[in-house]
Amino acid sequence: MSDVTHILSEIEHGDPSAAEQLLPLVYDELRKLAAAKLAQEKPGQTLQATALVHDAYLRLVDDGDTQEWKSRGHFFGAAAEAMRRILIETARRKKSLKAGGGLDRISIHDDELIGSEHAEELLALDEALQKLERQSSRKAQVVKLRYYAGLTIPETAEALGIARSTAIADWSYAKGWLKLEITRNS
After folding, report:
1. Is the overall model pTM greater than 0.85, yes or no?
2. Which of 27, 33, 129, 158 is deepest in the core (most CB within 10 A)?
């Protein structure tokens, strides 16, 4: 059992000091994943990978719910989902602001994650991804791990416990399906 898996198990059993031990072990890898995701965003995006990692990490270990981490791959899959949700929430907030809602002052932090011109695209992707998830949760997981977490095909296959050829086929299918779905709805 790797150190990460062992510490995840300790977190699962309620050890309060385990979360402090986990961050140094996964931080660099989570930061690389966040940086890869943010590199795919349009220019003008001001969020730092560090902020995205911290927000996602807090959602994973400080949400008060006991998590059942099955493996290191499961943890990173959950991290990818947390990053996706953070970006989607920010896109929704930006879209609301663009439509004239929320006339209160906003801090720089509220404006950091994603440019408003990109918010609509991200929301369209999320809506299509939710439809794909209802059709094939595994294909949707492949998209989340590849697009949001920046995992490679081999890393995605390992995280999901599937063959590389299956991950390649799922990724190809999902990209085409999502493109068609987004085009159809725009």
Report:
1. no
2. 33
CA dist 113 and 88 (Å) reads 9
131-165-88 Cα angle (round to 5): 30
| Of the candidates 74, 109, 81, 77, the residue with the CA atom closest to the CA atom of residue 93 | 109
DSSP the chain: --HHHHHHHHHHTT-TTHHHHHHHHHHHHHHHHHHHHHHTSPTT----HHHHHHHHHHHHHSSSSPP---SHHHHHHHHHHHHHHHHHHHHHHHHHHHTT---S---GGGGSS--HHHHHHHHHHHHHHHHHHHH-HHHHHHHIIIIIS---HHHHHHHHT--HHHHHHHHHHHHHHHHHHHHHH-
**Rg (the chain; Cα; Å):** 17
Question: Hey, what are 98's tokens?
Answer: 């663009």
